[in-house]
Request: fold
Amino acid sequence: MTDDRIQEQKEISFEEFYKIYQEDLFYYAQAHTEMSTEDTEDILGEAFLLLFQSWERIERKTPLLLIVWMRKTIRYLNYNQNRKKHRFSIVSLDDVQNLQTQFFDMEENAYAELLACIQRHLTADEYRLFMEIVIFQKSFSRIAKELNLKTDTLYVRWFRLRKKIQSFL
Reply:
């Protein structure tokens, strides 16, 4: 069974991306920052603003590559905000945008090739599990609930999947 959200070859509009992935990216930001909900929302808002400003310069607007771009931006904004607290450094949104665009351009092809290789070697269900854990970084309990599985069963499937991926990489 193929999850429509995981089909990374299909391009997506900014509005569609926001509607579909905003909640997942919020959970990601909340899990990777030690901030209040309001601060997490601020960082996520800044990241979406940067994405909107960079939209025309991004060549391939596939969900997977956009998620990678957003996660890097969220991590960078979180790092920068923590650095500001300690050092009072000022970084403009233009600086962040330029850095993130450079990182995105350099790594876009490498991610796409790696994920295409992984997708070729996995079944649809295995690839979905891989995407949910690695790319969307959902918790095992949340994925187990979505797939109507026991958490222990999911752990076993993940262990086998990791072994399979290690065997061909």
Remarks:
- The chain has one domain: 4-122.
- The CA atoms of residues 84 and 90 lie 7 Å apart.
- DSSP finds seven helices and no strands in the chain.
- Helices lie at 14-32, 37-54, 63-87, 93-121, 124-135, 140-147, 151-168.
